[in-house]
UniProtKB/TrEMBL annotation:
One of its GO terms (biological process) is 'de novo' UMP biosynthetic process. It comes from the Bacteria. The gene is pyrB. Pathway: Pyrimidine metabolism; UMP biosynthesis via de novo pathway; (S)-dihydroorotate from bicarbonate: step 2/3. This is Aspartate carbamoyltransferase. It comes from Agromyces seonyuensis. The lineage of its organism: Bacteria, Bacillati, Actinomycetota, Actinomycetes, Micrococcales. It catalyses: carbamoyl phosphate + L-aspartate = N-carbamoyl-L-aspartate + phosphate + H(+).
């Protein structure tokens, strides 16, 4: 594996192989000394052109637990704010000897451009590009589902027959896009639920059903309900009347949560808008995997960096 840019490009064997390596990394994190010497001497650059807390810290922790040297780069206060291009930034990192670059960028396709342009020799991990993809988030979501469903017997397994409902701002969600493709690869059945104004126009080619009725989708007792954040910072118009109306029709409120089977997982990639897309009772319940997703993110990102930079697998 040279780069990790999209879940759409992953084969089933590649995806399951990465999740299995993440199981090994999770075992490392249960030890007293949570470190491996695998990437000693390697340099990983976190190249973030957008604000981030969970993803950036997760990648930093993952790289350090593999003994890599980590450089955190923020566009704010850097030469980028003075007009430096992505090409010039990449060539600067090349000159510094970066072995791996974890990039988050507001422009869809920026990680692919960095990986294929020839500007840099480093392995590239897409940490979120515009409204395109966020592959490691989808992988950690799948890892979390697989562990909850299969427990200690998860290794080597996919998500065959698992029914997943993804609810909310599909239009602006790179998390939803990555999950749709990965879940299909792993054998799950996905339904996307959103207001008509928050459904992308290109979903005809997606391996997912589209619904605008959350109650009808929940009545089918899915195995997983994943709520998405309303991304107000990407909205330049009125996509729904108001927050109260949105919560009434598409929020996982106390009433809807109470009707879910006790075995249904409740997921959210974070950060959560409590009271808008998800009620506190759902977010803090034993059915919620929100904290597990954060912890599992480190294991999955350790696995991704290992595959890209250690030469462990072709």
């Amino acid at each position: 594996m040279r780069h990790l840019l999209s879940t759409k490009a992953l084969t089933r064997d590649e995806a399951i192989g990465l999740l299995d390596i993440a199981e090994d990394m999770a075992a490392v994190q249960e030890r007293e000394v949570k470190k491996l010497p695998t990437l000693r001497g390697k340099t990983v650059v976190n190249l973030f052109f957008e604000d981030s807390t969970r993803t950036r810290i997760s990648f930093e922790a993952a790289a350090k637990r593999l003994s890599a040297d980590v450089i955190n780069f923020s566009a704010k206060g850097s030469s980028v704010s003075k007009g430096e291009s992505l090409k010039d930034t990449a060539q600067t990192l090349q000159a510094m000897g970066a072995d791996g670059v974890v990039i988050r960028h507001p422009a869809s396709g920026a990680p692919h451009l960095l990986a294929t342009s020839g500007w840099i020799d480093a392995g590239v991990v897409n940490a979120g590009d515009g409204t395109h993809e966020h592959p490691t988030q989808a992988l950690l979501d799948a890892f979390t589902m697989r562990r909850r469903i299969h427990g200690a017997a998860a290794r080597g397994k996919g998500l065959d027959g698992i029914r997943v409902v993804i609810v909310g701002d599909i239009l602006h969600s790179r998390v939803a896009r990555s999950n749709v493709w990965l879940l299909e690869t792993l054998g799950a059945e996905t339904t996307l639920v959103a207001p008509p104004t928050l459904v992308p126009v290109d979903t005809a080619g997606w391996p997912a059903q589209i619904s605008h009725d959350l109650d009808a989708s929940l009545a089918e007792h899915p195995d997983v309900v994943m709520m998405l954040r309303i991304q107000a910072e990407r909205m330049h118009g009125a996509f729904f009347p108001d927050s109260r109306e949105y919560s009434r029709l598409w929020g996982l409120d106390d009433g809807r949560f109470a009707q879910l089977p006790a075995t249904t997982m409740v997921m959210h990639p974070g950060p959560m808008n409590r009271g808008l897309e998800i009620a506190a009772a759902a977010a803090d319940s034993p059915q919620s995997t929100v904290r597990e997703q954060v912890a599992n993110g480190v294991s999955v990102r350790m696995a991704a960096l290992y595959l890209l930079l250690s030469g462990g697998l072709d």
